[in-house]
Amino acid sequence: FRRCSSDLLRRNGKLVGYSNNFIKRALHYNILTVSNDLFYVSPEVRGYNTLAGKMLMEHVKFEASRRDAKSITMGHKVAVGKHMKKLLTDSGFEPFEAHYAIWL
What is the distance in angstroms between the CA of the first residue and the CA of the last residue of the chain? Predict the structure, then answer.
C-alpha cells in the first residue's frame, strides 16, 4: 500500500471534512486502485445546499485519476450510511461487490 495524501475540506478555516485513502495494486485485476479508509463530512455542512460532500468526493476522484488509478473502492455503514450511499451513487459509483464484517 502507498498512502495517498489525506484530502481535507475546510470552511472558514475550520476542518469540516476529510478523506483518507490508500493506493494499491488490485490483486484480481492487476490495476492501481484507490481504497478509501475514511470519508467524513461534518453534519453541519452535509447536504446539497453546501455541496461539501460532493466537492470532497470530486477531489478524491481527481487525485485518484492524477495518480493513474483505474478504480476507487468506497463503502458505507449499512445501518447509518444512507447519506453516503446517496453521495456515492450521485457521484457515479455503482454497486460492485458487497463487503461484510464480523466484530469479535
Answer: 26
Q: What is the pLDDT of residues 6-53, one digit of tens each?
A: 577 888 888 889 999 999 998 888 899 998 999 999 998 887 677 888
Distance separating alpha carbons of residues 81 and 76, to the nearest angstrom: 5
Whether pTM > 0.90 for this model: the answer is: no
Residue 39 three-state SS: strand
Cβ proximity of 60 and 36 under 8 Å = yes
Q: Give the C-alpha distances (Å, rounded to integers) separating 46 from 10, 39, 50, 64, 86.
A: 13, 12, 7, 23, 12
Would you put residue 28 in left (φ > 0), alpha (ψ -120 to 50) or beta?
A: alpha
What is the distance between the alpha carbons of residues 69 and 72, in angstroms, rounded to a whole number? Answer: 8
